[in-house]
Amino acid sequence: MAGKKKEEKQVVEVEYKIPMHCNGCERTVAKAIYKIKGVEKFITDMANDRVVIEGKIDPEKVLKKLKKMGKRIELVVEDKNNAEEEEAAMEEENIKQDIETWLVQCFGDGEVHLMFNEENANACSIM
Q1: How far is the C-alpha of 33 from the C-alpha of 41, rounded, in Å?
Q2: How many helices (H) and strands (E) in the chain?
């Protein structure tokens, strides 16, 4: 005991791709994950064949234990910085599309230029 120190593991969130075709498959996967030491919580997504596990675990050891079920399992690796950049770009694109949709719905395709035109007195009710 004097010279042995256990390495303190950090809480990690890992995503696995596991084919699940029915509720029985999902229950089997859930039971296997439940038995793994260090798992704090997990989410199974049967529609997308994904499982997200959170806890003080080693992703590779969990992968080996899950492979014993006989299913083809893959560790999904995502670059957090890349994912955040893509999310920000998608949000910016959605905002642009929302503005364009609003303009077309409110003013039609060709009527935007008449919005603040001096020749059309009824175009702007703010003035």
Answers
A1: 9
A2: 3, 4
